[in-house]
Amino acid sequence: MSEDEKLLVAKEDYLKAGIHIGTKFKTKSMDKFIYKTRPDGLSVLNLSKIDERIKVAADFLSQYEPEDVLIVSRRENGWKPVKLMTKLLGIKSFPGRYPPGILTNPGLENYMEAKVLLVVDPWPDRNAINDSMRIGIPIVALCDTNNQANNVDLVIPCNNKGKKSLGIFFYILTKEIMRNKGLIKEDSDFKNSLEEFTEQ
Predict the structure, then answer these.
(1) Among the residues of 7-116, which ranges form H helices?
(2) What is the pLDDT at residue 146?
(3) Tens digit of pLDDT for each residue in 24-73?
(4) Is residue 175 a contact partner of residue 186, using CB atoms and an 8 Å limit?
(5) How many angstroms from the chain centroid is the CA of residue 166?
(6) What is the pTM of this model?
(7) Do the beta carbons of residue 47 and residue 94 sit within 8 Å?
(8) Is the pLDDT of residue 20 over 70?
(9) Is the C-alpha dihedral spanning 147, 119, 83, 99 positive or negative?
(10) From the centroid of its chain, how far is CA 192?
């Protein structure tokens, strides 16, 4: 079995999207996912660990009803793919600034319930993480080399800043969840292209 057959998408698609390119800063919690540091100082994440964790996240999120999943993305580059995933799967999402309290304060007009949270970046999305910790629901987070992951239950190492990187992540995640839920059988049944998930 070739390396490509084991990955969720072709290795070159991952590389083209730059999903493995980290930052010049690395935290202790992300150390184990880093493959090497380039001469220019950028850390490079381990591609097979990225792929493995996306699969784990898809299997984990598939156990929940779509309306029990909440995705939060303060980062603008995540808005387009998050909105498309929301549309295709019927999950809840919050592209933009997450107002604190919407998971914890039933008195708020935009109060919502969720059983699991997925955030695009633990730092700008920390309000959502804090709320989730208060109500005790699992937290899944895309973490770059510079992220602290101490309050995260499931870390998905990846470049969580780039348009192409976030596009390919949500493209794969959506497709894998649909497959797990029996909504599609083959890759060819998935009618949305990678380009549709990527902000132009």
Answers:
(1) 11-17, 47-61, 79-89
(2) 96
(3) 999 999 999 999 999 999 999 999 999 999 999 999 999 999 999 999 99
(4) no
(5) 7
(6) 0.94
(7) no
(8) yes
(9) negative
(10) 18
* DSSP secondary structure letter of residue 70: E
Cα(180)–Cα(95) distance, rounded to whole angstroms?
25
CA atoms lying within 13 Å on the CB side of residue 16: 10
Tokens standing for 159? 């470049």
Please tell me the distance from the alpha carbon of residue 184 to that of residue 190, in angstroms, as a whole number: 7
Residue 43: beta bridge partners? 37
Q: Is 105 left (phi over 0), alpha (psi -120 to 50) or beta?
A: beta
Arithmetic mean of pLDDT, 124-146: 97
Asked if 168 and 46 touch (Cβ cutoff 8 Å), the reply is no
The dotted CATH code for 20-181+188-197 is 3.40.50.10490
Distance CA 36, CA 46 (A): 8
